[in-house]
Amino acid sequence: MTNPTISAATPPAQTTNSEIATSNRSLLSSSEGTTTVADTVVQKIAGLATREIPGVHALGGGAARAFSSLRERIPGATASAGQGVSVEVGERQAAIDLHILVEYGVSIADLASAVRRNVIGAVEQMTGLQVVEVNIAVTDVHIPGEEDDDRTPEPGRVQ
Questions:
Q1: Beta-carbon neighbour count of residue 136 at 10 Å?
Q2: d(CA 112, CA 102)
Q3: Is residue 112 within a helix (H) or strand (E), and if so which, with residue range?
Q4: Cβ atoms of residues 104 and 138 within 8 Å
Q5: What pLDDT score was predicted for residue 78?
Q6: What are phi and psi of 47, to 5 degrees?
């Protein structure tokens, strides 16, 4: 006599959204306490992860890039890692919006896919938050030599 519970095939385990939410909750809260992640943390991680991808020239719109270039001229000041990045962070999830300037000749579709993968991986691995969306707005295309034309030549020290 065979036991029907043993001979019946068990279906493969499937992960449900509630299990994902539960697993994410356990990463940031436990019986010992709760961990919260600030918006600026996610913003900086996403900005740095975006800059790692070849073909991304800069982040931010025109005004943000102009302000950043002024800030870089101040001794000791550095560009903001979160420039061009806006985020919404909840208890278990994050949504990210990026504004990028791409290099001329790069496939925007391929670049966006690579940026999205890298940002999601970095934010989820470092924070434990589930990234629900990464929206990318391409604000401009960088053409090599274009910056050189806009600059006025600086006068020499000796005239």
A1: 20
A2: 10
A3: helix 108-127
A4: no
A5: 52
A6: -65, -45
pTM confidence score: 0.68
Task: Determine whether 1 is exposed, middle or buried from the number of CB atoms within 10 Å of its CB (0-12, 13-18, 19+).
Answer: exposed
SS3 category, 138: strand
Decide if 87 contacts 39 (C-beta within 8 A).
yes
Q: Are 92 and 25 in contact (CB under 8 A)?
A: yes
Cα 146 from chain centroid (whole Å) = 27
C-alpha dist (Å) from residue 72 to 14, 57, 65, 75, 128? 50, 16, 10, 7, 33
By the 8 A CB rule, do 84 and 51 touch? Answer: no
8 A C-beta contact, residue 65 and residue 101: yes
The amino acid occupying position 119 is V
pLDDT digits (tens, 9 = 90+) for 90-137: 999 999 999 999 999 999 999 999 999 999 999 999 999 999 999 999
37's tokens: 């992640």
DSSP assigned state of 106: S
The CA-CA-CA angle for residues 51, 53, 55, to 5°, reads 95
Helix (H) or strand (E) holding 85: strand 85-89
